[in-house]
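Appendix B, example 12.
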Amino acid sequence: MLGDNVRYDGGHHLIDHPILKRWKQEGRLVPICPEIAGGMQIPRPVAETQCKFPILITTQEGEDVTPQFLTGAEKTLEKAKQEHVCCALMKAKSPSCGNQRIYDGNFSGKLIDGAGVAAAELMRNGIPVFNEKQLNDLFAFVEDSERISA
């Protein structure tokens, strides 16, 4: 969401917001794409979560990409811990990054409650995850965190 072309289709989801621009200039952001960190390519096939327990993520063609998603989640958590992040901003609806709702696995555009594997891993480890529709909540959280630690 910083403008890097890491979407499955080779595009990006740039969020052009002055606070994020300032944080980037100040070196406060830790960019990572869990799917790329897990070894996936750009572009890559669309993938959705088929089953949560046990986890199964496949492409529309049926290719099992669960290992790449799990590796990406592990590497994302590792980097977050290494960099001592207070929270994460991740892409809504993604099978990696969605923090509240993800696609249902039928490739129909229908959403279900749940989190993507990387977002869930961060949250399980106490790192709050926000999506691009929760920017005000993210900014308030960071401001409160800074005020408390000051």
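The chain has a mean pLDDT of 96. DSSP finds five helices and six strands in the chain.
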